[in-house]
Predict the structure.
Amino acid sequence: MAALGWLTPRRRSATARSVLAGEASAEAARKSTQEEQQQTPEEEGTEPQFPVHGDALAAAFFDLDNTVMQGAALFHFGRGLYKRKFFETRDLVRFAWQQAWFRLAGVEDPEHMQDARDSALSIVKGHRVAELQSIGEEIYDEYMAERIWPGTRALAQAHLDAGQKVWLVTAAPVEIATVIARRLGLTGALGTVAESVDGVYTGKLVGEPLHGPAKAEAVRALAAAEGLDLSRCAAYSDSHNDIPMLSLVGHPYAINPDSKLRKHARGLDWRLRDYRTGRKAAKVGIPAAAGVGAVAGGTAAAIALHKRRR
């Protein structure tokens, strides 16, 4: 893949693979959005509102896992693939454990992420991109739609109502991220780009997963390509791993933050929103403990099923 040459001077260091992943994700996101615009007529009559009325140089970037949606998109996608016989019960048990850890610890474990990434790549190798896109639509309805945080969705809608573009930025596969973005009415998605040849997955990545510094590189590349002023843009995330991305923009928000991000955000007077506990969780009707319990129960059920089959 040719270098895009979109990057502006960096304030934070990044590896060559992070830059490649970011550029590839930005290119895939813009290509997907252009195709959507060609297929879907623009709606008229919407009246821009807060946050910034008609600011064409501003946009918003939202992390996905535990920011827009409860839990990890890759786990929910894995559940859907398991239902469709893409892999065996022991793999589902491993995915369930990773999800339970993610929900209980509130942080992303690098080893779990690496394992999930390698498993996902081996599962999709040899399958057509179009097939996974179609399945992604079904999986969104089955497992993801009911796990969207209403509070975060309202924040994204405020940017859309102001006439701004809104992008998801996630380590999930860009094809799945694009499905979620479209279903939420967002502009598009930046996600991990898996290599494909003639429309078939090779089992390799372009660069590395869109995580940490790679997310910042993707946002930087997309902003340059779209002519955005990052100092007028907003970014939202729950994880300290996304501090590089949050630090790029003039309006960073910590959403359902982990302890490290909460401390960092308070130190820099960033805005915080938490939709998981107390009265706020009651308002959206999704207590965090209930989600953890569901995952733990699902893990136990999967293990029990596996034992009965042995």
In short: The first helix runs from residue 16 to 39. Confidence is low (pLDDT under 50) at residues 1-12, 38-50, 278-310.
